Amino acid sequence: MEIPGYELSERKSVGPNRELYLATKAGRRQKFVVRVQHFAGSVEAQRQYLEALESRQQLRHRNLCEIVSAGELDSSVYVVTPFYSGGSLSDALASGLSMPRLVRIATGICDALAVLHAHDHVHGDIKPSNVLFDELGSPVLIDDSYFEPQHSARRFTLGYGAPEVAQGEVPTAVCDVYSLGMLLLRVLNGDLPWHATDSDEPRTQSATDTLPPFGPEHAEFEDLIKGMVAFDPESRTANVAQVKTALAAVTATGDLNSVAVKSDLISTAEIAEVLPPSPDDRGLPSDRARAQRRASTIHWIMVNSVWLVGLWSFLVGLYEIPATKRMLADFGILENAALVEARLNAEALSADPNQNLQSIIAAYEAVLVIEPEDVDAIDAISSVRSRWENDFAAALTQNDLNVAQNRLDDLLAVFPDDSQLQSMFDELQTRRHALRIQSDTLALIRVTAQEPEASADMALRAFREVIRLYPASVEAARELDKLAEHFSEDALHEIELGNIQAAMDSLSKASLANENYGELATVRERIQRATTLRAEIEARLAEASDLRGDGQLIDPPARNAAMLFHSVLTTDPDNEVALRGLRDVSNLVVAQFDEHLRSRNFGENRHIIERAKSVGLYPASIMHMESSMADELNNISQAADFVVAAERFIADGYITEPSDDNALIALREARRLDATNGRIDELFALCVTRLTAVASDARAFGLEAVATTYSTLASQVALDASR
Question: Is the pLDDT of residue 322 over 60?
Fold first, then answer.
């Protein structure tokens, strides 16, 4: 089996319709996991699965398993994800886990779930083995069933799954909250609380079950976990944002540094290796003596194992107390005092909800100045940034643009050159523009209520633009539904009057408002039954063809080729003549646009784009025209900047020197970007004049070599100017 761009190194497992491999990528040392899902010829299931993967591939977060690549291999689909080398949460529990780190892990899981829930995904199977760690120790939420086809039965793990899921209900976001609560409970208590009576297997919570008591060392978590694992979903903690807030409160108010958890005791074999030989081992003991020694040894091992684990937990917890760290550092027993103080300061700032991003990042960077490879500081910087990015996304989802702007400003102040932040800036500006159009249009509708037809046409164009910029706008979608209803009623009214042409116009507008509106089928059927329909379609096609030949592609607004072709397709969506005609119109409009662009007729081009949107030309054509004009305007702006720079160089006498930054270099770059700028030719001529004057002065003073040099430069510049 060959996966494009990857080399399979080891097959890890084989299951029903599925294989799992380790893989590498050419030129990179990073390892990857390749899952291959076989579909046995089910083409439709394979297509749906691949589409779902492409959607999930857009979900990216440092605490969420990334889909690096996905594709098809005959009747199979492959999925490539990173190989996370830091082990699982189960492994971390076996070796020991401090409470602060547990809180950081739970916070990371909350961040990952927030991304899933924001895009209407539910994880459904949160447990220790589905929490891995990357090479920096950051938690990554995975789940094999996340990569299964959507039609597959969704798995959940007994003991972790919410009661309603066990009863067959569809998993929701609060089911993930429940599972995360059970994970925390299992970590703190060392086991799941409920087991079957006839076996030691974990079972799902029943309505009469109560949580086991929390010890004093875990009391800070009691209210949080009780809220997360409430049997009734309505009584449960509502979302992971509330869980994250509660975790921050636990960190801020509770003394977690004196507590640690560890799921594995020290093994008998490990203790036996360090025990001195028993005196009885020197001879051949009797069976009774051997039994007594064995019982004594087991008792000694059990007592000392418990004592050692308790001592280890006490020492780990003691070290986590800030005062202890400072004291040990001051005495030189552990790390230097400056590093300890920097860490504690950074952690305190991070836990303070009133601190800004710049202060927190600066504090962790101070740690890295002292210890450049401090993993916790590197992890914390990434975590804090993710927190700000998630706050931005949440604010944008709620259209709280002031909060989103504040979070983005904080990020830009710390990471000014990050291209991802530019995308976030563009997204925020697009949202502002969409909401402004939406509010202005609603206000205008109220003002123009006396002219319903004019306001309806205006509202249709405006709300379609809002949906293009902000597809999730509920308000715009609701208004477009109203417009679809309005134009559908108009169409039915025109049919009753026998005005088939007017009915088709109204139907076309209703379809533009919402092509899935339920009444469109009824209107189409009524129009298709009209006796004059076919003649009207033929007449419209002929008129559209004539208008196309006369160059009336999208203008005038009242009657043009694109409008007529659209009106035919509204009634007869598969009409080949209309489809071909609309494609031709789009191509001709783009050609006109390109011609105007070459002649810098931007006013006409803006009109073309506006009209193209109004008549519903293909989105790809509109995107091409908008991006082309934006690029050309940017070139003109940059050329103007180079002209200003050239003027400054000429004024300062830097015409040809220094060799890497002078007037000629600026003028050449300006002409490359905007050859129509007349000021460029003027400045080239000025450079020639200046260089010629210098040559003349040098010749007058008998400096023939200098005169020759400047004459040559003047000739070269004149040649450049003529090109």
Answer: no
